[in-house]
Amino acid sequence: MGLLVDGIWQEDGVRTKDGHFIRPTTRFRNWVTPDGAAGPSGEGGFAAQAGRYHLYVSLSCPWAHRTVIFRKLKKLEKAISMSIVSWHMGKQGWTFDTEHGSTGDQVNGKSKLAEIYLMADPHYSGRVSVPVLWDKQRKTMVNNESPEIIRMLNSAFGAFTDERSDYYPAALRAEIDRVNDLVYPNINNGVYRAGFATSQQAYETAFRALFDALDEIEQRLSEHRYVAGNTITEADWRLFCTLVRFDAVYYSHFKCNWRLIGEYPNLSNYLRDLYQVPGIAETVSLDHIKRHYYGSQRQVNPTGIVPVGPQLDFAAPHNRERFTKTR
Ligand SMILES: N[C@@H](CCC(=O)N[C@@H](CS)C(=O)NCC(=O)O)C(=O)O
Hints:
four-stranded mixed beta sheet, 9 helices, two-stranded antiparallel sheet, 34% helix, globular, binds glutathione, single chain, Glutaredoxin, 2 domains, 327 residues, Glutathione S-transferase Yfyf (Class Pi), Chain A, domain 2, alpha+beta
């Protein structure tokens, strides 16, 4: 996978240490706030406005998927525009190749996502990743870290939507943080730690931690409808983006094959429950997901052949209504 070093594209960037996959920290960490005051990190000057911000996403990427979901749930589609990159990530990194699933870059007219990073910083060094929250007014990147972007979408744009749902409510924050601390390293990033490992020991360590964490979540879901209680929160959407890819991709492509999500009674019903929340199904493209992982990650799947199956039906009935939903 390529990356930028002092503004120059390098086709091969090493991402492992002693066989373990390393996910580097991201660089653009400013926050959109209602009045433009600085957020928890970065600089101020990014006030919420309708039409000012743009999301660059991939429909295949689980991290970008979170932001697509929050834009949808918070009814911000008119206020925040969005471009989708191609499912294929080759030697040039993410591109806006419209023949391979991209919408094109309607904002800056570029052909590669790396050019967007270079507009923000001509000497940028690091990964060229999605999602990106872009400021059309200042022509710069606000933030490229999905957990932070979803918090902004959740709380900064209240003036531009009539949707009042809150996915990080004060009363549940400690519990949400606890779940995220279990889910991020072991499940969200855990599947990557297994799939991108280059030593047997690193793979097995990630594999065990992943399935231990899934067992813990399965148990939690026997007690309440969602992971942090009977209220749907950001912790559910962060987990959802991994679960919805699991049986189609992570089970086989990333060798996470102890069990399918379909074999866990609670997790599989929970996954269908979330999928059936209005608007969510439209954010899930199994076509982009499968083509990207199997077709682009040639270090894992050298032939690039995309499997035809499995047969999945996320619209089938679930039994989660037995829990009383609170909100
Ligand atoms: N920490 C980032 C991770 C984003 C990320 O790793 N995105 C992947 C796609 S799934 C990407 O763009 N990778 C390109 C690369 O690493 O070069 C976030 O959560 O926003």
